[in-house]
Each structure stands twice: as C-alpha cells, then as structure tokens.
Amino acid sequence: MSVDEIMLRSRFMPLERILSYDIFNNGFNGWMTLMPNFTEYPDFDVPKTLVNKDQWPPVMLSSATYRYPGTHGAMSGTYSLKLSTRPVAAPYCEKPAEGSLGHAIKRMSFSRPGSRFLQIECWFSYTAEQDIVDGGDRPQPGLHENSIREFGMGFDTQEGGRRYFTGIRYLNSVDGKMTQKWQYVHSKDGITDKEWAFGLEGDWCKKGIDPWWFGRRYPNGDHDGFRDLPDGGQKLIYNETDCKLNWQYMRLKLDTRDHEYVEFQCQDRVWDMRGIKIDVVDGYHRIDNLINPVFWVGADTNRRVFFYVDSVVVSQE
C-alpha cells in the first residue's frame, strides 16, 4: 500500500467509490475561481444581476506565508488551496459587497448508475489578516476573529432534470457579533424569485440557486437560503495570530436518491441529519448529471479573511 493510500484511509472516511482525492501540494486538481458568466450580447457582458462577482478574488495555491514565521506550509507538504476576500464587507442584512466573498469550485459529473450517497470531506483552516491592531478595549485587539463572517462547503448538483444546492456553513460572526454555529442549505418556504434576488425582477438566478450569494439576510443571523443545524453551536479552533493554522476536519454526506441530508461531522462531533429534506428545484438547460463541489468564505468587516483547504475527498456509493 502506498503512502497516499495510507494517508487517504487514515485521515478520511470515504464512501465506496472515490471520485477525487485532491492534495493541493500536487497542484490545483481542477479547482478554480467561481467567475461571472460572460455570455451576453454584444460584448460578452454578464446577465442582469445585483450581485456583482467580477471583484471576487481568485483561488490560489498558497504556502501560507506570514511576516513573522515566513512560510507556514500545509498539513500535507507546502501548499494548500487558499480562498480569500478583499478588505470589504457590507452589513449582514444587505447583499454581499463586491469582493467580500471568495469561492472555489470543481466541475464533475455522475458516472455510475444507481449511486445513492454523495460525500465531501476535507481538512481546513481559516484566519483573518492581522493588518492593524483594533482599539484597546478588547482582550486581544489584534485577533480579528469577528472579521470572518462565514465559510462553508457543499455541492451544486443536477440529475434527472432536477437541480439542488446542498451545503453547510459556519456562521462565525454577524456584524461583528460572534455567532459560531452551523447552518445547512435549504431555502425558505414561500419566497419569490424576486425576493431571492434582492428585489431585482428578471435576475437569471432562481429561488434556491446559489444560496452563498443570493437570499435575504436578517439581523439575528437567519438567511433565506440557510437553516440552523439543530444543536449546531460549536467553537472551532481559532489561534492567537494569523499564522497559527490548526487543521480541522469536516465531512458532509448526502442521499441523492431520496434528496435528504444524511450526516455532518466537524472535528469529533457528528450530527445525524437523516430526515432533513434537500430543497429541489427545476433544472437548468444543458447541465444534467452535474456534480460541482464548492467551498466559500466571506468577510464580516473591511478586512481580508482567508480559508485554507489542505486536502479534499469527494466520494459516492
């Protein structure tokens, strides 16, 4: 058995069939920035929308270099996949500011008839930039933990003419107030496409699609595209400086036959999600059999924040 096989089986819990095992020390492995759709006449403009994505930073392979220790490296070798934001953020209840979100996506497809379960798992870390020290009324004025609004992972999936977005996000901070709870993707009942698109009539995006960008937000941390995971409060490791990266594990398992969540795990906590239905909508043209795993991170203050993925496994059975 090779070292890679030993590492795969000891650090992950894949389902029977492994679709991808990505160690970013070996390269991007097909993960890329989630870009606008430059498709419109006459000059390859983007479709009409209120959510402008052309300022969202690209993903990169990072050695996690910081001013004091130099190169941090990854959990596996030197490089991890790094998602970042620009130093901008809108109030939580407004649509995302241009540049306040960073995304990574890998484009795949279903390949085996009868496969029922789909799973994504990874080792991750996150931090905010230590650019300035905040006011001295805080216990650790350079920590900036509340600058990280959210991060998450999930899937954009379409099969059988039906499209569904699934995922889990860690809502870390809402307008500077620490929240630290998990929420799962499921759009709110009774809302319209116009409400989903922040009031724009005729936006290309329909209710339930792309919840990391769309859907109204509310002062208590609620969201038209997410629901609280029962007993979902969890304090993750966030160390004392931007260069202290602790690699943490998370895993999400789905039932694509019955369109249900199955299980979520972060660190050593496991949530049984059986019975929680996936929100299914009409499919889009030309993308049937789609499996697109995604990661994202968002800023809560005008400070850059970062999300690192050391390695990720997508599997099914």
Identify the notable features of this structure and list them briefly.
317 residues, mainly beta, 8-stranded antiparallel beta sheet
Q: What's the order of the H and E elements?
A: HEEEEEEEEEEEHEEEEEEE
Low-confidence stretches: none
Cα Rg: 19 Å
Number of helices: 2
Question: Would you spell out the secondary-structure blueprint of this structure?
Answer:
Blueprint: H1 3-11, E1 17-23, E2 60-62, E3 65-66, E4 70-71, E5 80-84, E6 101-105, E7 108-109, E8 117-128, E9 148-159, E10 162-174, E11 177-185, H2 193-196, E12 226-233, E13 248-255, E14 260-266, E15 269-272, E16 280-282, E17 290-299, E18 305-316
Antiparallel strand pairs: 1-18, 2-5, 3-4, 5-18, 6-17, 7-17, 8-13, 8-18, 9-10, 9-17, 10-11, 10-16, 11-12, 13-14, 14-15
Could you characterize what this model shows?
It is a single chain. The chain has helices at 3-11, 193-196, and strands at 17-23, 60-62, 65-66, 70-71, 80-84, 101-105, 108-109, 117-128, 148-159, 162-174, 177-185, 226-233, 248-255, 260-266, 269-272, 280-282, 290-299, 305-316. It is globular, with a radius of gyration of 19 Å. It is built from two helices and 18 strands. The protein is mainly beta and 317 residues long. The strands form three sheets. Strands 1, 2, 5, 8, 13, 14, 15 and 18 form an eight-stranded antiparallel sheet that branches. The two termini are 22 Å apart. Strand 3 (65-66) and strand 4 (70-71) form a beta hairpin. It has one domain (3-129, 141-153, 187-303). The relative contact order is 0.26. 4% of the residues lie in helices and 39% in strands.
